[in-house]
Amino acid sequence: MSGDVVDNYHARMRRALVFVDAHLDGDLSLTAVSDAAAFSHHHFQRQFSALFGISLGRYVQLKRLKRAAYRLAFRNGHSVLEIALDSGFEGPEAFSRAFRRHFDQSPSDFRKTPRWKPWRAAQTPLTQARSQTMTQTFTPADVRIVDFPATPVAVLRHDGGGDQIGDAVRRFIAWRKAAGLPPRLSATFNIFHPDSEVEGSAPVRIDLCAATTRPVAPNEAGVFADVIPAGRCAVLRQIGDSDDLSVAANWLYGQWLPQSGQDTRDFPLFAQRVVFFPDAPEHEAVTDLFLPLRA
């Protein structure tokens, strides 16, 4: 079978995943999803399971529960009932049973004190499925060289286990809300210090940043003022799932940098979160990676 035929098949399957991302509130029946990918619904269930290693029904439920978990942990504008109904469940009891089965916590308990380790484990089938067709590929034409301006930021530093990053994000969101610095008014950056991509409970050091010129008053969250320095940067845009930026980062370091003739300068890799999930469908999330370069 030629590569073009396989690529076309995978592109159609990718359309199915994009359709699911974009219609988590709507009809995600076998017929609806197979129609979006232009496959016969008589065979699509087996095709989907064979390629992705997970049934369509379970994939859809995990995607809806992932969005629900993000809304519970990081957004407080919706009640558990509203989130349940938006997740395709008839009521909070069915939603709670499914949520507990996958994440080992009730939705209300997760909203109060998320347990991130079971939550991360439950994402494995989604991550494996999406890696089949949704991994973005890059070319040198995707990289821009820019002069990044000195940018004052408010910083919350996470220096601990990877499973606790979600708690740091929750504290930072709460501080930003209290300080009147939501993402629509203040650009969001992450600075990745050495070894910050390590998974699990290994030490991770990431700075969560919000651009602001305002003074940062002493606070219980531990947020402090700093500056992302000015300088030349290579910029690579990742579109889609922003939980894992390692593929884009490794391509920058392993493919682009050796062929570019550029040298790095003494500041870590950092990212700007331009469009967020769950505020946008996951395939529409946008993250810009900045690799600092010498002048």
pLDDT averaged residue by residue:
92
In DSSP terms (H or I, runs of 4 or more residues), the helix count works out at 11
Secondary-structure-based class equals alpha+beta
Q: Which spans have pLDDT < 50 for at least 5 consecutive residues? A: none
N- to C-terminal distance:
48 Å
Helix fraction? 40-55%
User: What is the overall shape?
Assistant: globular
Q: What oligomeric state is this? A: single chain
Our estimate of the beta-strand percent is 15-25%
User: What would you report as the Rg, rounded to the nearest angstrom?
Assistant: 20 Å
Strand line-up of the largest beta sheet: 1-6-8-7-3-4-2-5
Give the ordered list of helices and strands: HHHHHHHHHEEHEEEEHEE
Strand segment count: 8
The largest sheet, given as strand count, sense and whether it forms a barrel, is: 8 strands, antiparallel
Name the features.
single chain, 295 residues, alpha+beta, eight-stranded antiparallel beta sheet
Could you describe the 3D structure shown?
The chain is of the alpha+beta class. The chain contains 11 helices and 8 strands. It has helices spanning 3-22, 30-36, 44-52, 56-74, 80-86, 92-103, 107-112, 116-122, 124-130, 165-179, 246-260; strands at 143-148, 151-161, 188-192, 203-211, 224-228, 231-239, 269-275, 286-292. An 8-stranded antiparallel beta sheet has the order 1-6-8-7-3-4-2-5, with helices on one face. α4 packs antiparallel against α5 (80-86) and α5 (80-86) packs across α6. The radius of gyration is 20 Å and the shape is globular. 27% of the residues are buried. The mean pLDDT is 92.
